[in-house]
Amino acid sequence: MVSLQALGGCIFLLCITSIVQGQLYKANLLRSGHYKIENVFDSNLKDALGSIGQNAWNVNHLDLSSNALSKIDSSDLSQFANLKVLNLSLNVLSETVDLSQLQQLQTLDLNNNYIQRVRVGRSVQNLFAVNNNITGVECVNNAITGKKLNLANNKINWLRDIGSTCRNGVEELNLELNDIDEINFDDLSGSRDTLKILNLAYNFIFNMKRSGNFVFTSLNTLDLSFNKIAFMSEVLNVAQKARTINLMNNKLVLIDSGLRLTAVTNLDMRGNEFQCKTLETYLGNHKNHVARPAETCDSKQQQKGGYCCENLNAPFADRLIALKRREQSLFIPRDAQKNREECERENSERQNRVKHILAQHRTQIDQRVFHEQEKVKLSSRKIELERVLAEKEGGIDSLKELLRSTASSLSLPNVSAEDTQKAMVDIVEYFERRNQEEQRKQSKAIQDVESSQQKIEKLLEDKAILDKQTADADKALKAANDTLVELTAKHDALSKFLAAQQAS
């Protein structure tokens, strides 16, 4: 038996202690039905939970946070028949966590773990799973409305990675800092009347779609900041009831003339690449959408309504050319520095946001538990790095083979596939030379066309002059013919008169 004095005293109403395999856990009754269990490991989980004994049926709030659990499922918690709140944050849970058999569970906290997939039951209304590696969430037979799902800083690729029963009836959905590159608002049609907050910031979204003509009737806040969106299309009319829309730091160039966000009182579009004409038209239809504070524009830009823009004749083509040049320049020393700095800046912004989210959900844990967590994390990291290394080695071999075949097809005998960076630079420079040659040919062809056009225009001018001269000549000839006819008639009349005089 371990004394209370040896434990440093117990400040809780009840403190149950036990040593199992040299590991001490403490089950603390904070208030009626609310237990917190500390110093829990995989090896003593069963005993730690069992220490609550016959009171398990009366527990509605169980806190197992800040421990070193790497696995748990519904069977471990089967004695907690009336459990409504479960906190498993700050453990080292990984792979799949399946708690779908906990029929009364309403709130589940899985923040700060290494979980890949989550299964919850029919009664879960609040799921907090920030800072994991989640790629999928399933809500078994869940028809709850007003759900709050916080899945920030995970590995979600698209909305359908979240099961339909999870997506239906959602009130708040936070998917900030995931891997989403395309968003289809139809996937949230089951929440059209319940969704109030949708956070999709810091993803990689470049395309938005919607086939249904529905509107989120209760939506208050939509955050699409720090993505890759280039076109503010009519799809955004799905959020026309929202009060706040954040589109900061995208790649916005054009705005659809059919877009109407007249209910929005707080719109932020700073940090984009607008064409001036489209921005001016949009702001003309939305007088209240002025940037506060106004952006600071560079020498090539103008400012309209507090936003920076450029006069682009072919907006998407101009941006696409700039993007392609930026991609190629990463391998070309003379252009690489500037574009790498931009990539590093964007990555730094994302990493800073990740650190903020991590810090926001981090709490203090016992030093021994911390070391145990670190052991588990390092073991998992080692396995992951070994897997990645094998993939990278295979990828490098494939890249070398691709470089060899490319160099051979381009007749570049001096390119060494072993020096991959130099090989890529040589191949890119080859295509740059080809591109410059094609551009020279195109330029020459354009000059020839322009010269031919000038000749054609000169010939047309000469033809117009000749046509005018011909018309004048025809007119003069007609006048001469008319005069000749008149003179002939007079001659005939005179001849008759003379003949008549001679006869008399």
UniProtKB/TrEMBL annotation:
<keyword id="KW-0175">Coiled coil</keyword>
<keyword id="KW-0677">Repeat</keyword>
<protein>
    <recommendedName>
        <fullName>LRIM1/APL1C-like dimerization domain-containing protein</fullName>
    </recommendedName>
</protein>
<dbReference type="Pfam" id="PF20733">
    <property type="entry name" value="LRIM1_dimer"/>
</dbReference>
<feature type="domain" description="LRIM1/APL1C-like dimerization">
    <location>
        <begin position="314"/>
        <end position="498"/>
    </location>
</feature>
<keyword id="KW-0433">Leucine-rich repeat</keyword>
<dbReference type="InterPro" id="IPR001611">
    <property type="entry name" value="Leu-rich_rpt"/>
</dbReference>
<dbReference type="InterPro" id="IPR032675">
    <property type="entry name" value="LRR_dom_sf"/>
</dbReference>
<keyword id="KW-0732">Signal</keyword>
<dbReference type="InterPro" id="IPR050836">
    <property type="entry name" value="SDS22/Internalin_LRR"/>
</dbReference>
<dbReference type="InterPro" id="IPR048481">
    <property type="entry name" value="LRIM1_APL1C-like_dimer"/>
</dbReference>
<feature type="coiled-coil region">
    <location>
        <begin position="442"/>
        <end position="469"/>
    </location>
</feature>
<feature type="signal peptide">
    <location>
        <begin position="1"/>
        <end position="22"/>
    </location>
</feature>
